[in-house]
Amino acid sequence: xxxxxxxxxxxxxxxGLSVLLLSGCSTMNQLMGTEESVDxxxxxxxxPLSIPPDLxxxxxxxxxxxxxxxxxxxxxxxxxxxxxxxxxxxxxxxxGIEVMRDGDLRWLVIDKSAEAxxxxxxxFWGEQGFTLRSQDPRAGLIETxxxxxxxxxxxxxxxxALGGIIDQVFDSGERERFRTRVERVNGKTEVYISHxxxxxxxxxxxxxxxxxxxxxxxxxNAAMLARLMVFMGTDVRKAHDQVVEAEKDPALAQIxxxxxxxxxxxxxxxxxxxxxxVGVAIDSAGFSVEDRDRSTGEYFIRYLDSDTGxxxxxxxxxxxxxxxxxxxxxxxxxxxVAQQGNGSIVTxxxxxxxxxxxxxxxxxxxxxxxxMGAAN
Length: 376
Description:
Layout: E1 5-6, H1 11-22, H2 28-31, E2 40-42, H3 56-59, H4 73-82, E3 97-102, E4 105-110, H5 114-127, E5 132-136, E6 141-144, E7 147-149, H6 156-162, H7 164-169, E8 170-171, E9 174-185, E10 188-202, E11 209-214, H8 218-231, H9 236-248, E12 256-257, E13 264-267, H10 271-285, E14 288-293, E15 298-303, H11 317-321, E16 331-340, E17 343-349, H12 359-375
Helix pairs in contact: 8-9, 10-12
């Protein structure tokens, strides 16, 4: 089991300040274990939380803004409860939000347009302590930068009292970034949240550390969905109950196979379920998505295969100045989901729509298969 790392140069300072604090003030709710278990701090500075031009009007509506001065989920929940029954209620109680579940995969179905939901999600991630890495309204994707969950660092009451000093002393050694996908389905909006997880791990010689990808936690995705519900106006208790009830639904068995020598994945489920499963697998794998077309069952991705042996060069200053390109560039590919009998089949196509049975296609499908297996 991995433990929290302490920077050596601050160890003496930490011990001295800890003793001082033990004899002084403390925060009782943290000592009692009532603090939130999620408290993100972005590892990227700046404020890229801009709204796409075509959605700025929706963002001006007070319904789509978090209350001023709110910095954490706990503060938001307390503010909302304090204002219940008053005319100046921060956000009206929302209706028309459902939690759906398929195995460990959960998503929201919201009775609003995508234009209304999209800017709310951008505001939500900012309130959670994230900056945005990218946003693409056309593809319906919002991706955060890496952030550290400071709640995973022990001695939380000491860290709170020390403020910025302790941030330089303790590091959880874990990072997450989240991707939110928004889809229009039958006049409503579906919202999916997935994340990538990295853990700082000592090298074989123990002298240094390196960052490696770790397994995604479906429970964390579900927790963020519940928080999003509350941010959009759902009562805290109702959001909690809906997630719990969704967890009680029986999961149908999923069979995912990658036949030897064939570049496809066979899913024992109809198109609608397969489309959702593949979409979340693409998000979890971190593929660069440019667009999607549910009517044809296709996701359009950019993929640079680093295993082909093709040389990938980083250009120097003069090369970048004069527009020189890398030797290898990410190819535009399609991932197609198609109904086949009672199940579905997933294939990789080139930019012209031709099925690929190359090693690159097989590697893509292997990655997708592993992430779909993790979601069952």
